[in-house]
Write a structure and sequence with these properties.
The chain has three helices and two strands; from the N terminus they run ααββα. With about 45 residues, it is α+β, with helices and mostly antiparallel strands. Strands 1-2 form a two-stranded antiparallel ribbon. A hairpin with a 2-residue loop joins β1 and β2. The mean pLDDT is about 95.
Length: about 45
């Protein structure tokens, strides 16, 4: 999802993360961020 699309559809991105989907945010074709659920974040932090 591009930065501009993420801005326009932020609630949808949050809903996807809540369902367990990681949402990658890109700028100019490069990944710059991700929205993940707290459970996914905890697993990543280990």
């Amino acid at each position: 999802m591009t930065v501009s699309r993420a801005r326009a559809h932020f609630v949808a991105a949050l809903n996807a993360a809540e369902r367990g989907e990681a949402v990658e945010i890109t700028r100019r074709g490069r990944a710059v961020a991700a929205i993940v659920s707290p459970a996914q974040l905890e697993r990543l932090d280990g």
